[in-house]
Structures are given as structure tokens and as C-alpha cells.
Design brief:
33% of the residues lie in helices and 19% in strands. By secondary structure, it is an alpha/beta fold. This is Beta-ketoacyl-[acyl-carrier-protein] synthase family protein. Pfam families: ketoacyl-synt, Ketoacyl-synt_C.
Amino acid sequence: MSGRSVAVTGLGAITPSGNSVGELWDAVAAGRSAVDVVEGHEFDGLPVRIGAQVRGFDAEQVLERSLARRLSPVQQWAVAAGEQALQHAGVGELPWDSRRFAVIAATGSGPIDAMQHATRDFDAKGPRAVSLTLSAYGAPDGAAAVLSQRLGARGPAHAVSATCASGAIGLGDAMRRIRHGYADAVLVVGMEDCLNPINLASNANMRALAAGYEDDPTAASRPFDRSRSGFVMAQGAGAILLEATDRAKARGTEVLAELAGFGESSDAHHATAPHPEGRGAADAVLACLADARCEPTDVRHINAHGTGTPAGDGAELAAFDTALGPAARTLPVSATKSSTGHLLGASGVVEAIVSVMTIRDGLLPPTINLDDPEFEGWDFVCGEARPTPVDAVLSTSFGFGGHNGALLLTAAR
């Protein structure tokens, strides 16, 4: 590790588990599931009709009506979460040179609903029915552009896309910008909304989703359990403000945690299946520890990717065995997608938020629905939260295409 240390100073969240960080953390720590039967006639007839939806969010309480009407819901959530993070950090007028403040939107698909709606309008009514705002707001970088304009951030504003590893990789890119002197602060917003009939049908046809839980949707997400059958789609956004630690302390703001290490890799193996031995995932974890100049024994807790897919869970544990050695089986492991569902490209940011709260409160969040663990010799945090002081949490994110990201969050020094 070289250069400046990187502080976490602000958090924001619009998720199925709550529309603030406090609500999100309360739900996850209590082991409350956000999964339910999805609302809307458009989901009728689908083979899978469960998911974790954002509820109770009113965009016009956050945005001007004219802007709210131009943005997709996923962009509304991203802007709201981003502004929550700045407020949490005590930022009103920018305390940094605006040219050294960057915004990154991390997402697998961006505002995919905008293109789907435009396609339907075109097919039904012709070209003049297509919204003229599609070109401006219909791409993955749109939320970053809107946030940069609202905040007066003149540094880079763009999107990072690496399927379900997007959030972790966006945070890692931001950390490097600060560490190596290209920025003083970066706002990272993870955002995703693939909870629509087309994406549900595609993933169901791939047999990637947990199916057959319409009568008991809260039991569907079952990471590491012998009866797991797939992941549960979720939507939402999370935001983290990163600052150079020296700048954060100089302006008197609280340092919630530090982002001490980051590693990324590719499996170079398959379009959807992970490498069966977790080869690429292990590479990302090893790179993360090397980046932080930490030994496996320095890690105190793992917030696992843990989606509940038959192949993915086993590959992830194999990666921990490879990268962490004997220490792997001594570390408590939580898989919080069991509560929140899988927010895809936003999950890395949301789970980094959970990791920060884990360090703050000394409380390891539970993996719910883990009634019959398939994998022996692991210390899974099951059923209910476990009070345990920790000062270093490894948070992992892996995605289709073989994308891998790992983060090490530590207590403020």
C-alpha cells in the first residue's frame, strides 16, 4: 500500500430492507427478510414471481418533480442515496476543490427499464413516441452525470460495469484515485434495477433463481444451505463517500472506517459459472490482502458474496480456503443477501455499508435460512446476530462473466 489512507465518511441507502442506512442495518442485523411476491400484473405467468422490491420511496420528496419524471427509478434511488451519504458526512457546500471530487456510478445494467419502455413505445406507436430524454438519461453513467451537476463536482463522473462485482470494483477504483493523489474525495453509488419481467424470465430460464417459494418467499434466499436453489433478485442503491483520511480529519468529520485494500480479477472461465475451485475469486482476495499489507490472520470477519446458487457458494468457500489458508475456517462468515436479496451491481456497495456498520457496532449480521449447512468446518453466523468486536472485514463480490472484487474495510486508525 502506498499513498494516502482512504476514509469512509458517509453512507446512504435506498434498498428493499429500508430507505436509509439505519433502516437497512436494523433489518439486516435483526435477520428480517425483504423478499416477497413481486407486485404488478406484468409479473403474472412468470416461472419466478418473488424478489426484493424498494417500497415506500417517494422521488418527489428528494428531487424536483421535473427531474424525477425524467429519471428512471434506479437513478432516483442512486441520487437519493448519494445525497444521503453527503449529508451523513456533514457535507453541504463542497469542502474540496470541485475538480478533485469525483462521482462513480457502479451498475451492471444501468437504467435498463428506460430502454425497455422506449422499445415498447416504438413498437406500439412509432419513432415519435420515443422519449427525447432517453439519450441523456438512458445510459449507465446517467446517474453519475446528474449527481455531478447537482453537487458541482467537476472531477471525473462516469460508470463502472462488471455485473455483480460492479459495486466492489467501483469502490476499489475510487480508493485508488484518492490513494494515488488523483482525487480528494469520491462518491460511489451502486445502483441496480433488473427486477422486471424480462430479466426475471431470463434468469429463471437459466435456472439461476430460487424457484417455488411464492407461498413462503422469505425462505427463498438460502446461502450455503443444502437446499439452496438459486439467488433472489433485488433492486436498490447504496452510496459511500470516500475521502483522503487526512482531509477528513482536517475538516473535523467522523471517520467511520477505512477502505484499506482492494483486489480484482477475472476467472477467464465461463459466461455464467464460476471457476469450480474459485481460482479467480482467490486471486482477488489475495490481491486485496497484499494491497492492504495484511495477513489472512488480520481479517476478523467475512461478509461473503453468498448468493445461494449451487455452484457459486462452494466455489467461494474454495477461494477462501486457497487465499486465507488455515485462517479461513476460523473466521465467522455472514451472507446478508439472505435478508436483502441480491442487488446485483449495487450489492458490493450495500454490503460494504453493512461491513462498516458491523465494525461500528461490533455485531456480526446473521445469515438467515441457513438451517442445514452443506459445508462442514465453517463458522457461519446463523439465525441471529453475534455480538463480536471486529476491526477488519473482508467483503467479496463475484459476478457473471467471471468478474471478481474483494474489499478490506478496517476500523479507523
